[in-house]
Specification:
The structure holds two protein chains of two kinds. Chain A is α/β, with parallel strands linked by helices. Chain A contains nine helices and five strands. Chain A has helices at 15-27, 38-44, 64-73, 89-97, 110-142, 146-156, 161-168, 172-186, 191-200, and strands at 7-11, 31-35, 52-55, 80-84, 102-105. The radius of gyration of chain A is 23 Å and the shape is elongated. Chain B is of the alpha/beta class. Chain B has 28 helices and 30 strands. Chain B has a six-stranded mixed sheet. In chain B, strands 15-14-18-17-16 form a five-stranded antiparallel sheet, sandwiched between helices. Chain B has a five-stranded antiparallel sheet with strand order 20-19-23-22-21, sandwiched between helices. In chain B, helix 13 packs antiparallel against helix 14 (365-381) and helix 26 packs antiparallel against helix 28 (818-828). Chain B starts with a strand and ends in a 7-residue tail after the last strand. The chains are: A alpha/beta, B alpha/beta. The interface between A and B is medium-sized, with 25 and 31 residues.
Chain lengths: 221, 857
């Protein structure tokens, strides 16, 4: 009951299953918004709304895995819990690879279901917090001048002021001034703190594009 | 082949010879197609006879039935044009509606100045054209209401008229015309047109018409299968099988099987046409020649058909003419027989008178002699011999002095009797003389030439006052020919028995009252019973009690309709074992067509029956194994199908528990939940029932089924599988489809297999191209058809040929038994199944089943 205000989206083509799950989730205090097919969800879903998605795999038209793919491509932060009648291994692997928070099989026990939803909301809260932090850093980054930004990137890359001055064709003293302004604008006291922020914002090491990696719950802006 | 040129005998340059008249006959079909062919032939013969001067005939047959498009029309035009590049013919005679239309349509182009004589054409064809002044026509007028009127006169109770009509364009025209003209009669009579059937299908239908039906044979040039029928072949074929009378329109069909009516005389049409042709060729202007449409002649009938369909001649309209009269023996010799009978009666009277006269009026010698003379004359006429034996003088007088051998006294008489019969004759005479009644004898008598004659004689002895016999008088009749006929019959009977007893089959005969009167020795050996036990209905005791009703029904129905029959039943053998026999019976008639009963033969077919049953059992076994394995493949989606209601039940239950544990329980909500749980439980139950039905092994139950319903059931069973495979099912089901007779599970199995095959074929398709279409419709001639179409790559041509052979498969993981099983199921249902690639891509599998008919009352 900790997530009393939490929204659960439910997509399943079986009306009787939808009705029963809605009842169960509402009795547990969730707001439930149900859809009879993936297309309907895609049309009506507003990506800003918080909550989690309870998704059937086998559906006519666009199936659950395809819907999940779509969410990933549209950078949605919505956590996905799969609920399927006959989950085969390839399907579950694909689902988890695309960042599903859970993979439940029908018929599902309420405890398993509610626990999965709670975990998903926890995860979303965390991801939203992280996203908010990144957004804050980004806001600060936007206040930097292009030159200050160059200096920041060099500093984060671990270069000395002298090296930076050489690279940018200026004197060390100017770099020092830029660096002090960067620290001030970014609101940090130490270099270590600056590097952490920069990494969070995807500057420096994190700025190199990754071929693969863990599921991305927030997009680099 | 678009057109055939017949008898085009001249080269173009020869056609210009002085005075030579060239006449072009344009046939609609070929010259062998009646009625226009008959008119044309008659026309040609008559014209050749009537026209004085050199003539040359050209005949071109426009094979009109195969000419469907205007494009083909142009090909004819080009061809005919090419034939007459050097100059038009002197007269063009199109025969029949299609040729007339052709000639009129292309007149300007082909024959701008040649006179046109339209022949063998019904006036309706000409009406829509305005004839130019260089054209005239000899038309005929069909009288369709007259046909119905004729039928009603002959068979007043007629409720059903079946119109035999072909499927050519010309016949389509007549179909519309007859439909229009028959409409006023439709309140009392049902009309059926057979133009969409092949001749074979027509024969089948016409052999089983309901009572009170009459067949109207209009024409059959081309049947629905496109087969042409020349020279009235179709009429002959139909007449051979039809169980109802046939009426027609043309006199030439009389004697070919039609009963008759007011008929058109095609010969006089040909003659009239030739007359007009002579006038035109002699220079008369066609526009000046007007001939009224020819109408049917006075009613004419075929006597044999009238007899067959029990029409009394008194029912025929006035002035009717009856042809083909053949007479039975009695009719042929009716007057002679009547005469003979009269003579016999007169004679008996005379004998009586004579005896009286002899006894009472010897004095009137003169008149006696006269009567004697008369009697002799009469007796001679009847080949009757009168005799008188004076027992006192032993003198014998006979009325036939011309007889080859005259017995003058008793010993002479006895000598003339065949030695074997002498004792009997003498005994009979002695008895009579002893006063033990009249003398009666049948004996052989040897003529002078040594020939043996059979004689039957009757006589009476007169006694004097002292009871002594004094005179014996009597008559005798030569019955040799009757006796010979009897002997021949006995001989034929003996021969029949000999053959029947030697035959390796069981043979029986029954009389016209359905009572059996003969069983051959093999039958008696088989049943181990005596002839007297089997005679009558005794044989039926040996029929298995379960088969008796059906056996008697088949026999009874065939018997009442005088139709041959075949049936199978179990018959008890001498050892008590029941054996399956196949019994085939046919009605038999005597030389005069009188129904005598049935003769039939039975063969022991138990071995074949057992083999059939064995084959059926193994087919069922295989079908069952295949069903089980198919369901195995579907296990995943069936589990899903079951999981859905289970999920709903569990979640509903847990929601209800929460409601009950919470505050302010909403009982209304809980009640709804419980109702939903019950509903979902039922749903789960149905899934299991459907699966169970498919897994069950049992005798197929043939019941009336709706194919659309089968489609629905299979789609429910396959719902999850289709969703999982991303295949959309589209149904195009014919509404109000007639039922078929079949086993529900087996038909579901066929549908299931075919849908899964279709899905397999579309595995590699993009999502929007994975569609299976299920279609049902009314097929041809009482069949219901279903089609399962996919959008896959289609069948490889070499696979199409062998698709139904076992272990042929186009799939990497298939056993190759699906289609063979589908086919064996279809065959067991009297249906068939076939494959084809669609023109628009993908493949279709179709099957058709005979529609189930409600039993006719």
């Amino acid at each position: 009951m900790t997530d009393a205000m939490h929204q659960v989206y439910l997509v399943d083509d079986d009306a009787a299953v939808v009705k029963a799950l809605c009842r169960l989730l509402r009795s547990a205090g969730y707001e439930v918004c149900s859809f009879s097919c993936a297309e309907e969800f895609m049309e009506r879903y507003n990506s800003d709304a918080p909550g989690c998605l309870l998704l059937d795999i086998s559906m006519p038209g666009i199936n659950g895995l395809e819907l999940q793919q779509w969410l990933v491509q549209s950078h949605s932060p919505l956590p996905v819990i799969f609920l399927t009648g006959h989950g085969d291994i390839p399907a579950s692997v694909r689902a988890m690879k695309n960042g599903a928070t859970d993979f439940l099989t029908k018929p599902v026990d309420e405890n398993d279901l509610l626990k999965a939803i709670q975990e998903a909301s926890q995860r979303q809260r965390e991801s939203l917090a992280a996203r908010a932090e990144v957004q804050a850093i980004q806001t600060r980054l936007h206040t930097l001048t292009p030159r200050e930004r160059e200096v920041l990137e060099q500093v984060v890359a671990g270069k000395l002021n002298k090296q930076i001055a050489g690279d940018l064709g200026t004197v060390e003293k100017t770099i020092k001034v830029h660096r002090g302004r960067v620290m001030q604008k970014m609101g940090v006291e130490s270099l270590a703190e600056l590097v952490r922020l920069a990494e969070r914002a995807g500057i420096g090491r994190a700025s190199r594009p990754k071929e693969s990696g863990p599921a991305i719950h927030f997009p680099p802006v | 082949m678009f057109l055939t040129v017949l008898g085009l005998v001249m080269g173009p340059s020869m056609g210009m010879a002085a005075g030579l008249k060239r006449v072009l006959i344009l046939h609609s079909f070929g010259p062998g197609f009646s009625p226009m062919g008959t008119v044309a032939t008659e026309f040609r013969t008559e014209l050749a006879a009537q026209f004085k001067g050199p003539l040359e005939f050209h005949e071109v047959a426009l094979e009109m039935p195969r000419m469907a498009t205007g494009e083909a029309d142009k090909a004819f035009v080009a061809y005919v044009k090419a034939l007459y590049l050097d100059g038009e013919p002197d007269l063009v005679v199109p025969c029949g509606g299609p040729a007339v239309r052709f000639a009129l349509r292309w007149r300007a182009e082909l024959f701008p100045s040649a006179p046109l004589l339209l022949a063998a054409v019904e006036s309706r064809h000409v009406k829509s054209f305005t004839l130019d002044t260089n054209t005239t026509a000899v038309t005929a007028a069909f009288d369709f209401p007259g046909v119905v009127k004729n039928i009603k006169e002959l068979w007043p109770g007629t409720t059903n008229i079946v119109v035999v009509l072909g499927n050519s364009a010309l016949e389509a025209f007549w179909r519309a015309e007859t439909e229009r003209e028959f409409e006023p009669f439709e309140r009392e009579i049902t009309f059926t047109w057979l133009n969409e059937l092949t001749l074979g299908e027509m024969e089948e239908k016409l052999a089983h018409l309901p009572p009170q039906s009459v067949i109207f044979y209009a024409s059959l040039f081309i049947d629905a299968a496109g087969v042409p029928y020349e020279y009235n072949r179709a009429l002959t074929a139909i007449h051979a099988v039809a169980n109802a009378p046939i009426v027609g329109m043309f006199e030439e069909d009389l004697g070919q099987g039609i009963v008759g009516g007011r008929l058109l005389n095609l010969q006089s049409q040909g003659e009239a046409t030739a007359g007009v042709a002579v006038r035109i060729l002699n220079g008369e202007f066609p526009g000046n020649i007007q001939i009224a449409p020819m109408t049917p002649d006075k009613p004419t009938y075929d006597w044999r058909e009238l007899q067959r369909w029990r029409v009394r001649e008194t029912q025929l309209p006035a002035e009717s003419q009856v042809l083909f009269r053949t007479q039975s023996f009695v009719e042929q010799y009716r007057w002679r027989i009547v005469g003979l009978l009269c003579i016999c009666i007169i004679e008996s009277g005379l004998i009586f008178a004579l005896v009286r006269q002899l006894r009472q009026r010897r004095k009137t010698e003169r008149s006696l002699r006269e009567s004697e003379e008369r009697m002799k004359l009469a007796a001679d006429a009847a080949e009757l011999g009168l005799w008188e034996w004076n027992l006192v003088t032993d003198e014998i007088w006979t009325s036939r002095p011309t007889a080859p051998r005259l017995s003058t006294d008793y010993s002479h008489f006895l000598e003339s009797v065949h030695p074997d019969d002498r004792v009997g004759v003498a005994h009979a005479i002695a008895k009579s003389m002893n006063g033990e009644g009249d003398y009666e004898s049948m004996h052989r008598w040897i003529s002078n030439s040594g020939r043996v004659r059979w004689i039957t004689a009757r006589g009476r002895v007169e006694f004097d006052a002292g009871q002594r016999p004094v005179l014996m008088r009597g008559v005798s009749l030569d019955i040799t020919s009757r006796k010979q006929a009897e002997e021949r019959a006995q001989e034929s009977e003996r021969r029949f028995r000999l053959i029947a007893d030697a035959a390796p089959v069981l043979i029986w005969c029954c009389d016209s009252m359905k009572l059996c009167n003969f069983f051959n020795q093999p039958w008696l050996d088989f049943t181990g019973r005596k002839l007297h036990e089997e005679i009558g209905n005794g044989w039926a005791e040996g029929v298995h009690p379960d088969d008796q009703k059906e056996c008697m029904r088949v026999f009874g129905e065939a018997f009442d309709g005088r139709r041959p029959f075949s049936t199978e039943y179990r018959l008890k053998r001498y050892d008590g074992q029941y054996r399956w026999v196949s019994d085939h019976g046919v009605p038999r008639y005597d030389a005069e067509g009188k129904f005598l009963g049935y003769v039939g033969s039975c063969v022991d077919v138990s071995e074949r029956k057992h083999a059939e049953a064995e084959a059926k059992r193994s087919q069922e076994e295989l079908a069952h194994v295949s069903r089980v394995s198919t369901l195995g493949e579907l296990a995943g989606s069936l589990a899903h199908e079951l999981n859905q209601p289970l999920t709903a039940i569990l979640s509903n239950t847990q929601a209800a528990q929460r409601f009950l544990n919470g505050n302010g329980t909403d009982l209304h909500e809980v009640r709804e939940i419980l109702a939903d749980i019950v509903e979902e439980d039922r749903r789960a139950g149905e899934v299991i029932v459907r699966m169970r039905a498919m897994l069950k092994k049992g005798e197929p139950k043939m019941v009336p089924l709706d194919l659309n319903q089968i489609v629905g059931e299979v789609l429910r069973l396959l719902h999850s599988e289709l969703v999982a495979r991303g295949v959309a099912a589209i149904t195009r089901l014919a509404p109000a489809l007639a039922l078929v007779r079949g086993d529900r599970v087996q038909l579901q199995q066929v549908m299931l297999n075919l849908i899964l095959n279709a899905c397999d074929a579309m595995k590699a398709n993009p999502a929007e191209e994975r569609r299976v279409t299920l279609q049902t419709r009314r097929g041809n001639s009482g069949y219901i058809e279903a089609a399962i179409s996919d959008r896959g790559p289609g069948f490889a041509p070499d696979y199409l040929e062998h698709a139904f052979e076992p272990f042929r498969t186009s799939k990497s993981n298939g056993l190759g038994l699906g289609l063979p099983i589908c086919r064996s199921i279809m065959e067991a249902h009297g249906g068939r199944i076939w494959l084809a690639n669609n023109a628009s891509g993908g493949a279709s599998v179709r099957f058709s089943l005979p529609a189930h008919h409600q039993e006719m009352p």
